[in-house]
From TrEMBL:
E.C. number(s) listed in UniProt: 2.8.2.-
Protein name: Carbohydrate sulfotransferase
Record organism: Eurystomus gularis
GO MF annotations in UniProt: sulfotransferase activity
First-tier enzyme category under EC: transferase
Keyword tRNA processing: no
Lineage: Eukaryota, Metazoa, Chordata, Craniata, Vertebrata
Length: 165
């Protein structure tokens, strides 16, 4: 888009005409990840001050959707997929396959630009980790998390998510 802006400029800082022009001129790619896996990753990176995963989840639930950190805020509220028509949605755990397709569509060589991904290993690790972490939660916390992320779960196909059950 011809208008000069910095990378930190939020879309909300522009008027509707400018927003429509920008969104129409860019290829829009949305990277999505199972919300429960996002919580695990945030906890494992030490971004919460809680001593256990269960207490971290309780802190997340107590913060509510409006006060949630961007690290665990529902994707629907961050990315607005109901209002922005994304050209591509790339699922975590399928990067090599999906990014390869995206690069080919853009006319770029897949081999020269992609780092080595271990998607199968990542999926297995997160499957095991999710099962372990999910077992730490109370039934009430599981229900509250499913409700907290209900719109993400409805908008994106996370068939193996523990929150979908």
């Amino acid at each position: 888009h011809p208008r000069q802006h910095t990378l930190e400029t939020q879309l909300s800082k522009f008027n509707l005409t400018e927003i429509e022009a920008m969104l129409g001129s860019y290829t829009k790619v949305l990277f999505v990840r199972d919300p429960f896996q996002r919580l695990i990753s945030t906890f494992m990176q030490g971004m919460g001050s809680s001593p256990s995963f269960s207490s971290f989840v309780q802190d997340v639930l107590d913060s509510g959707q409006h006060n949630a950190s961007m690290a665990w805020k529902p994707l629907i509220s961050l990315c607005q997929p109901c209002f922005i028509q994304y050209d591509y949605v790339v699922m975590f755990g399928f990067f090599r396959q999906e990014l390869g397709h995206l690069l080919r569509r853009a006319g770029l060589s897949m081999d020269s630009l992609l780092p080595e991904f271990t998607d199968n290993q990542v999926r297995w690790t997160y499957s095991w980790l999710s099962e372990e972490m999910f077992s730490e939660l109370s039934l009430q916390q599981k229900k509250q998390l499913s409700h907290f992320y209900r719109w993400d779960l409805a908008a994106f196909p996370f068939p193996s998510s523990f929150l979908s059950s």
